[in-house]
User: What shape does this take?
Amino acid sequence: MRLKGICFLLAVFLAAFNLSAGAAAKNEITSIRWSVQDNSSDGSRVVRIVVDVKSPVKVSSAYDDSKKTLTVDISGALPGGNTGKLPIKTDKIKQVTGQKMSSAGSRLIISLASSLPKDAYKVFVLKNDPANKKPDRVVIDIFERLPQPAGASAGLKGKVVLVDPGHGGSDPGAVGLNGTKEKDFTLKLSLKLRDALVKEGAKVVMTRTRDIDVHSSNATAKDELQARVDIGIKAKADIFVSVHSNASVKREQGGLSTYYYAKTHSDALLAESVQNSLTRGFALDNKGVRQADFYVTKRSPMPAILLEIAFISNPAEEKLLNSNWFQNKVVACIVQGISDYFNKNSGGGEKK
Ligand SMILES: [Zn+2]
Assistant: This one.
């Protein structure tokens, strides 16, 4: 277990055990301590129960999903006086009961509020450490929240992301050979992107959530694009992400590219993070990070990118654009890329 970056939610609780004077020779449990630890670097939360014993013990554990109990047997040490209900309670742990076993052993029965997956607990012994005045002890770690995959989510908490589905309403954008309209793809993908970002703790503002012109159906192109920029400004967005798909007269053209306008170094960083994540995820042609004079990326004051996700003019990629599998994976890659950007750029999360 990593202790770096941990903040203690609750003060360590010490349950003192009544030790009878004559018990010195016997191996006994001397105390049971517990704490709840939040690890900010990976989002995990661990409840740690430490059972101090006078001399070495053996430990075994068994989890029963039908009863939602984790049983920990400590052989070689008696409970030391206190049995019954112990004062340990968390969101996940309903109750802990101590029992004396028939042989020289103790049992802890940990009743849980919900199922405990195999990778969500650890039971192990630690040898005494006289230098640090630590006795032999049994450690029970129970994850109330499992660690998040590296790099995910930490950077997105509380960030405001403007998501702009390209085109819409009177403007279909590019149209594929099989009739797919860019405006429909960008809206579908952007709604999924919104949901995924919200799930990671970001606040998302959309320029549109329906098939409409953002300004009005007879607006000039400039007014339509400025209306999108204005929404980002009003929302005080941290970043602006415009979703498009590419088109070319050459049907065989395909691939992924991310455009930015170099207002600050952050524009390029954001573009690189998202493009790298997308090209790691797909075997499509990497058309790279590109600078361009696009209205929304140039006029949005915050770091802004315009994604060209595959080519709607390429029949194979048009098919991809309509597949749920492809859309979901694109969304996951964009979310990871944005998260990487915030982790790198704003110190939003510690990287291991
Ligand atoms: Zn477009």
